[in-house]
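Hi there. Long-time user, first ticket. I'm pasting a complex I've been working with (about 470 residues overall). I'd like to know whether the download I got is complete or cut off, because the file seemed smaller than I expected. Thanks.
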Amino acid sequence: MNLIALSVWDLILAAGLVVVLAALSWRLCLGVERRILVAALRGTVQLMLVGLVLKQLFAQANPVLIGLIVLVMWSAAGWEVQSRQKRRYTGPWGYGIGTFSLFLSSFSVTLLALLVIIQVEPWYQPRYLIPLLGMLLGNTMSGVAIALDQLTRQAWDARGCIEARLLLGATWEEAIADLRREALRSGLIPIVNAMAAAGLVSLPGMMTGQILAGSPPLEAAKYQLLILFLISAGTGLGAMAAVWIGSRRLFDDRQRLRLDRLTAARR
Amino acid sequence: MAGLRLDGLSTALLREVDLTLVAGERLFLSGASGSGKSLLLRAVADLDPHRGEVWLDELPRSRLTPPEWRRRVGLLPAESHWWAETVGEHWRAPTAGSPIEALLVALGFDVDVSNWAITRLSTGERQRLALARLLLNQPQALLLDEATANLDSVNRERVETMLEDYRAAHATAMLWVSHDPEQRVRLGGRRLVIRENRLEPEP
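Hi, the file is complete. Here it is re-exported in full:
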């Protein structure tokens, strides 16, 4: 491995580009300079912290500590899903649907990868578990958030059509079938597109990182493929779970459309 | 006894309605806008949460699945909604020799209307087609919310005739919300009005 270590000055130089971008935003009255700077700062602090924590973690492989980190990652992803909804579900469902779907998809796919595909020993070895789970949670999170947001927005707008179908004797599943399909589709399209364009348009982030860090390109490509497949499966699974639970929750036991189970629109 | 019976039905705007429509009875309901007429119909069709029970021909609603109930007690909303591209896609399970053609002709349509795009229909045409769509289920009771509000006199008469024929042929109980005092008197039958969260006989 011929890893060229980055110095603090290298990073400051790169950060300078972001500052220039913020300055341009301010000069052109785009109004996003604050957001850019805050996001850059957040990213810096978070990644540095994670780097420190992972350093400790890799040295010890303490299962309790690993469990704790996993819990933090998981709940942060669940929170992110919830905060990307225009209309959330009221009560514990708001946080619950997304978080549960993430658990179902990311965790099962990560376990499968660790136990069957990569065959890490022991399977919770943090060097593999944490980056894999992070990659999966991050991507599944987007899919679940988009699908759920699409479902609730559309249900709100199509209330008249959904109720018209119920009134003609359709079951709740028949009445929401179109919306479910649309929601799933929009949740899956980003990752499908990313898979199709991988390598041609851009080198995916992980592969770029690996190559820069000195891995042979073909090895990096294989890992990238693995990740892409896992992410697609995880996103699909998560979006399906979220859309199924979410659409069920839109109806009560008398098959009435219950939009009162969604909060008022935000933003 | 055959017919539709509302048993202690309460909505957000109505207190404890007890009301019986015998089979084949037509009952007109009126009241100021926002007084809760549509909410009452929605409650009978079990579209909103509410209290109370409804019986159809001595069968309580809770004994039927919601789709079964809504097929038997058909609600025609004031505004019709269409989800597919063409009219024909909205006919539920079209069978051979489907009665839809007879319904369409009786409502003044060409049979070809099934192939039309929804977007080229006027509000009145949609309203009439929504009635055909509903009657295809052969409901045993009808809840009509302003069934003729958007229609010219020719089409209003067509719809009234169709509903009267259907009621006579199937002994259908009919709860009809109408803003048109002339229509309520002309067609006759019991008339109730919602006033201060209660049902009263129309003076």
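A couple of notes from our side: Chain B touches chain A at residues 45-49, 65-68, 70-71, 74-75, 77, 79-83, 92, 133-134, 137 (CB under 8 Å). Residues 64 and 77 of chain B are 22 Å apart (CA to CA).
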